[in-house]
Every structure is written in structure tokens, then in C-alpha cells.
């Protein structure tokens, strides 16, 4: 097996790009380098398992590693640290047979041309096996950076441990069914005939959950937009906005277009502007529109600076699905633990405030704006909305009633990670006074 067909070696190179270049896993998986790898399906799955597992467990395993090393590794031996943590992950989480885990890990050190590390890898991994070291997978709270753990504990008190545990679990693959094209029951039956087991989501009527993830290309109806990959929490947005026919709608942070697609599929005859500041992400939005065979006016620009893209015709509905810490989707994107820092939060809060204030001026009197994040940090959610209401006397909150999902907060509604098998999400619904 050459390096480029060895899933373990590819996992090491992927993780080094996350750690050294700050690239997200999504970005790497979509890169030319990754796409050009000719991996067998089974190896592709193993490579991903290793990469996701590394990110999920990095903070716990690196602490364990440090406690077993006689002296810390040099900065230039980051690759050996990664290789050792991957070895520990295979031994302690994947329960790989020790002989195989040690051998494969030694091979990785040799592939990095660091034969001096052979003895270290052998001694360290065999020592962990000999001493019966275990990782308590029911208490993954050590598997977070301190700042995330402290913030979640501060914000959620007794519920914090559950949020942390759920955030370390593997997420389900959840789909949105375009119920205009097919009923949920029919879709579940069709999937069953294709050997894909699915069930209705407990609280979101358009959502189904697969028993095991699969490639989207295997999903009957995906290419026609009957099925769309979208967590159940994200599927609530369109229902809350409830756009009337003929309305002008702005999806202000739209890419890659999950909610844009849903708005277009759920509401007839709306005039939708889909804005995002990232051209690369807008490409994915355009592909999604093409797949579902719907159209929108796609705009590139900064939601906080409408003068560069807004043409003066105010909106009846605005969806502000703002950039956020993504602390509610750590289970889907565990690289967030490595890539986000506490110092990112203040600038994010300021950016959210600017976007909200700028968009508010574009809303018609009587119009509705839905603010959403995939965050479980109160500062980005209910606190952001409380401050917005103070700054804007022409704004009233619309109470989100009769909801089976999430929990009411002083402002808006919060879904905590894993509740009803959903991602962590927040919704705040606002209306501008002055309408009829
Ligand atoms: C949470 S994601 C949106 C997900 C999308 N609504 C969906 O359902 O598929 C946030 C998006 O905001 C975009 N973004 C960040 N800052 C922005 C800004 N100032 N103006 C417009 N878009 C922005 C990002 O490029 C990103 O695509």
C-alpha cells in the first residue's frame, strides 16, 4: 500500500492541515488533493473515522499522551504527536487489536521518515495496553477545550453535562422530505426497498432519520430534491417564517442553501433573494437550486453592508441565519474544538449585531425577521436578541408558541444538542411595528 492509498497516512495529513493551517475538515474533504485520492470505499470510511475520532477525542487523548511521555515532543514533531494520538484512539476508542494498532502506528512514523520514533511508539502504546488504561467514553467532558466546557457549564448549569456528552456523540443522518413531492410514509417505504432503514423524526414533521448514514447518491429521490440532507433543528426555520404568497423574502446568510431550498419548496410564489458573502459557498447553493429545480436571485455581498447589494425594495420576511460559534453542531463538526478559540466569540457577537442592525432597516413594517444560530452559547442567542430589542423600539418579539421542540428562553427558543436527536440550535422571531 502506498502512502496515498493508506487511509491512516491520509488521516495524518488531513489532521496536520487542520492543526497547522487552520483548515476545516469540510474544506479539506472538498479540496482537489482529497478528491484526487483513489481510495476504496472501506478505506475512505476508515480514514474519516480516524479523522473525526481524533478531533472528537483530541483534548482527552493529548492529556493522556502528555502524562505518558517522559519529556514533551518537540514542536517540529507534531506529526509524531498526531500519529501517537491516532494510535491511542484506535486502541482505546475503536478497540483495534493491539498488535495491529501498534504495527500500523509504527508504519506511519516510518512513512514520515522518523525511524527514531519507532521505539517511542512501541513503548508508549504497549505501555498503555499493559497498564490497562481506559478512556471513560461516558464522561467525555475532558474531550473539550476548557473554554467551551466552562461556557456550556456557565450557560446551562445542570443540563451542561448532557450537552457536552451529546456534543461528543456521532450525529444521526437526518433528511428533509419535500412533502409536496412525496409523503413521509412513501419515502420511508421507498428507502426501505433500497435497503435504507429510516423512521419519522419525533417532533419535526418534515424530517426522517436514517438508522445508518449513507452516501447521498444512494438516496432515491435525492437528485430531484425529494430528499435533502438537513438536521431536523434546521428544518424548523421555514415553518417559523411562514411566508405568504407573493412575499419578498431575503435569506441573508444563505449558503450552501439548505434553508433557501426549503423556503422555495415549502412556499409557492415567493420572490427570494439569497445572499452570502462567500462565492465558494454560493457555488454550492447554486448547485442545490439546480438539483431541486427552483430559482432565486443569488447575491454576493456583506449582509452588514446592504449599500453594496440592496436595490431599495424592502422585504416582507428576512432569515438571518448568521455566522456563529457553531457550538451546537460540534457533534457534526468536531474540528470546531480545534479550530475555534475563545477570542473568536467577541468578534462574532459584534458581527451578528451588525448584520441584525443592517438587515432590520430592510424589513417592511409588519414584516418578520427570523434570527437563527447553530449555537448553544446564550450570548449569541437570547442575549443577542435581548440587546437587539433594547436598541430597536420598533421591534417586537413574536412568541414561538405551541412548539414541541426545544425550550422557551427569556427571548426565543433554544434546542440543546441532542434533544430529540437534533443539533443545538436557536431561533428568535421578530416583527417590525407599523404594519396594518
Ligand atoms: C450558518 S451558515 C448559513 C447556512 C445556510 N443558511 C443554510 O441553511 O444552508 C452562515 C453563512 O453566513 C455567511 N456569512 C458570514 N458572514 C456574512 C456576512 N457578513 N454577510 C453575508 N453572509 C455572511 C457564511 O459564508 C455562511 O455561508
Would you give an account of this structure?
- The chain has 436 residues and is an alpha/beta fold.
- It folds into three domains: 3-135, NusB-like (N-utilizing Substance Protein B Homolog, Chain A, Orthogonal Bundle), CATH 1.10.940.10; 174-229, Alpha-Beta Plaits (2-Layer Sandwich), CATH 3.30.70.1170; 236-432, Rossmann fold (3-Layer(aba) Sandwich).
- Helix content is 42%, strand content 14%.
- It has 16 helices and 13 strands.
- It has helices at 7-21, 25-29, 32-35, 41-68, 78-92, 98-111, 117-130, 146-156, 160-167, 184-193, 236-241, 258-266, 279-292, 336-339, 345-360, 382-391; strands at residues 174-177, 198-200, 207-210, 227-229, 248-251, 271-276, 297-300, 315-321, 363-373, 395-397, 407-408, 413-415, 425-432.
- The strands form two sheets. Strands 5, 6, 7, 8, 9, 10, 11, 12 and 13 form a nine-stranded mixed sheet that branches.
- Helix 8 (146-156) crosses helix 9 and helix 12 (258-266) runs parallel beside helix 13.
- The longest helix has 28 residues, at 41-68.
- The radius of gyration is 23 Å and the shape is globular.
- The model has no long low-confidence stretch (mean pLDDT 96).
- The structure holds S-adenosylmethionine.
- Residues 234, 253-259, 275-278, 281, 302-304, 321, 323, 355 line the site of S-adenosylmethionine (SAM).
- Residues 234, 253-259, 275-278, 281, 302-304, 321, 323, 355 line the site of S-adenosylmethionine.
